[in-house]
Each structure stands twice: as C-alpha cells, then as structure tokens.
Amino acid sequence: MKDNKLKILNQKIKSCKKCLLWESRENTVPGEGPINAKIIIIGQAPGAEEDKTGRPFIGRAGKLLDKLLKIANLKREKVFITSPIKCFPPKNRKPTKREIQICLPYLKEQIRVINPQKFILLGEIAFSIFFKNKKLKDYRGKWVEKDNKKYFITYHPAAGIRFVKFKKILEREFRKIKKIIDL
Ligand code: SF4
Fold first, then answer.
1. Domains of the chain, residue spans
2. Rounded to an integer, what distance in angstroms lies between the CA atom of residue 52 and that of residue 42?
3. Ligand 1 site: residues with CB under 6 angstroms?
4. Would you say domain 2-182 falls under CATH 3.40.50.1260?
5. Whole-number Å distance between alpha carbons of 122 and 27
6. Pairing between strand 39-42 and 80-82?
7. Mean predicted lDDT score pLDDT of the chain
8. CA 20 – ligand 1 centroid, Å
9. Which residue minimizes the CA distance to atom 2 of ligand 1?
10. pLDDT tens across 141-162, in order?
11. What is the Å distance from ligand 1's center to 13 Cα?
12. Chain segment 18-38, per-residue pLDDT in tens
C-alpha cells in the first residue's frame, strides 16, 4: 500500500513540468530508501551525477555523505535520502525560493507516506523548510524536537568538500548523531 503510494508519487515526479527545471533535466531524482525508514536525510537538490542516474547523493557530496553515515553507524540502505527539489538546477546553482515552493509538496507527501521519526537536515535550504525564519547557526549540531519528531541540523556535505574546516565539523556532528541512534 505504502509502496504503491510512493511508486505513484515517483511517476508524478517523473512527468512533472511544474517548474522550468524540467526542461534541462535528464532524470528526476525523487530519492531512495526503504518505505518504512525511521530516518530521512534531506539535502538541497540533485547535482550533475544525480541527474545522469536519477539517484540521490552519488556524486562527490554523496561520497562524503557515505563516509559520514559510517561515522554515525548508519547504513545507507536503512535511511531514506532525498531533497526538496527533484530536478537538477543547471550549473549546480541554488534552487530559487519559487522552485522550492513549487516542488515542496512532493517532499511533504514522501514524509507523510514514510512517516520517519528522525530527520537529518543537510544545509540551509533543508533547514529553512522545517524551521521558518530561524537561523541555522542557532540549531546546528544538535537534535531538536518539534511536533514529536527529532531533527538534527548540520551543514550540507558539499560544504565539507570545499573546506576542510566544514568537513571536520560534519564528522564531529555525525558522531553526535551516532550517540542518539545508539541509544
Ligand atoms: S523541480 Fe520539482 S516542481 Fe520542478 S519540474 Fe522538477 S519535479 Fe517538477
């Protein structure tokens, strides 16, 4: 039943032309993971590698995410990985507010169907969807409880690729994720 709902949703995403990003995409990237995942990881938008394959987080940022998941003792196949934008923004630009607003119902539906208990939010865009008008720096690096769900807010792995300082912070923060997952 749940499985079917996600399949139908993926089909909708595949044929979606609600914003102009459909024109330049090769593949939509709805996200992947088990239907009953307890944890959902939300990034920003697909990159070029993801666009080629239709799979989330498989480029350089994805490789770093894989390492971070190991630090947190999380198996990639046990978490659902997605983003609020399902098509590649050309030249890897940031998605616009309008694009996010138009695409967001797909993420909301995924969350409704999967019903995860814990959210790992990677970067400003994922954070701002759940914590409107708040500052990431005030929430980063800790678990925050809201509406009976737990959210862990950290940087996007792409920041860790660009700067060693952010990579170290990400590693430290994924160790904190491990602590609560191990409880
Ligand atoms: S980014 Fe989202 S809203 Fe825009 S075309 Fe792709 S699936 Fe549709």
1. 2-182
2. 20
3. 13, 16-19, 21-22, 28, 85-87, 99, 102-103
4. no
5. 22
6. parallel
7. 95
8. 7
9. 103
10. 999 999 999 999 999 999 999 9
11. 7
12. 999 999 999 999 999 999 999
